[in-house]
């Protein structure tokens, strides 16, 4: 899923993308989600000197596990893209990299920038990043999800249990016994 940008030379050169990628085109092994329908990418790519701009829209549907009940549910992805790519920086000499163990400071302009190599954009990696960014911080199948019972483990959205879930501090047990005696 690499896009050759070597033919884009000036501001007026632009390439329009309208592509659909199958689910199995992405290597998402080890991720907390999976694709459940093909991915649609509609974008315009233009070049301004060494900077490449990609603007458009990415649509997909992901499946992830609920943070409370662990049941899978669908997460729609509909992202407006406005990305900027710069050439990848050259690797520093190994002796300089060892001598410089402090990290480089990142400026505010660097936060929204990705990199390309060999006059090609890696669209697969860009879309994978967008999938990760589209994941909710606390994935819930629904706002009122009751979750799992911490004692017996049943899904409280489907059935009720009679487990005692109130935690009692064991240090307070002697006081509770004393209160019950009186």
Could you characterize the architecture of this molecule?
This protein has 182 residues and is α+β, with helices and mostly antiparallel strands. It folds into 2 domains: 2-88 and 104-134, no CATH class; 146-182, no CATH class. The protein is built from 3 helices and 8 strands, in the order ββββββαββαα. Strands 2, 3, 4, 5, 6 and 7 form a 6-stranded mixed beta sheet that branches. A two-stranded antiparallel sheet has the order 1-8. The termini are far apart.
Q: Any chance you could write out the topology, listing elements then pairs?
A:
Blueprint: E1 2-4, E2 14-21, E3 33-35, E4 39-48, E5 51-65, E6 72-87, H1 94-99, E7 113-116, E8 120-122, H2 123-134, H3 173-181
Parallel strand pairs: 6-7
Antiparallel strand pairs: 1-8, 2-4, 3-5, 4-5, 5-6
The profile of the biggest β sheet is: 6 strands, mixed
What is the number of helical segments per DSSP (H or I, 4+ residues)? 3
- What is the terminal-to-terminal distance? 76 Å
Q: Roughly what percent helix?
A: 10-25%
Which outline best applies? elongated
Number of domains: 2
Tally of strands: 8
Strand content: 25-35%
